[in-house]
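Aim 2 progress update. The chain analyzed this quarter is reproduced below.
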Amino acid sequence: MILTSIQKGDPQQPPLVFMHYLGGSAKTWLPVIEALSPHFYCLSLDMPGFGDSAHLSPASIATQAEVVRSTLKELGVSQPWLIGHSMTGKLVAAMALEAPTEVAGIILTAPSPLCPQPMTDQQFAMQYEWQATREHASKFVAGSHHKPLSPELEQRTLDDVLRANPAAFPYWAKTASQEDFTQRFEDITLPALLLLGEDDDNVPRLEQQLSSTLHQFSPHEYQIIEGCGHLLPLEATEQLVAIMSAFIKKYS
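Predicted structure tokens:
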């Protein structure tokens, strides 16, 4: 199984592999990779159940890791920086801890933690009782960002949610988000950057992110992006580009 992807930049440059949030697609990262592609080889993946991979069944974290590795091998990508957003933050952290020599470093963007992800009853119901309607999808998108998006980005984000495999949402809520990888792996030496939106209520706050996930990586850094919610690649594109680029160059 090979995932579809968007590829931008020179394959001879350091590879950055981007993975999206629940309801997103490879296009979620498009504003960021367009800015980074002059200096890096950027690949943005459609995860199982989303984007052009919507026909694939939702999968466990372990299965997703296998599929990502197979895709990167097929594309001839080695020693990449792995960049996960929300649901794929858990995936990226687990992949790096399991095989740290295969990764240059990681960036966790508003990530689901390595521990079972805490959710409010409302958040769980939104995903577990998913309705593939425009009204339901609009509420989901509205609850994901704090800064207003441009009409173009808002529409593209909504379109991504609507074309996703409807089974992916309840599967994430009940199964994949609740997988527990804490204390499963030894701490490792690998650069890790955590980015959180100041007004993001969709994932745990800094203290729990540090205690459940980030402490297993050294060196590690974190930044809080002011005035932003969960969709950091769209709400704070320029800031993310600057922060990511500086961090990668620092540890390359």
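The mean pLDDT is 97. The beta strands are 5-8, 15-19, 41-45, 81-85, 105-109, 188-197, 217-225. These observations will guide the mutagenesis experiments scheduled for the next reporting period.
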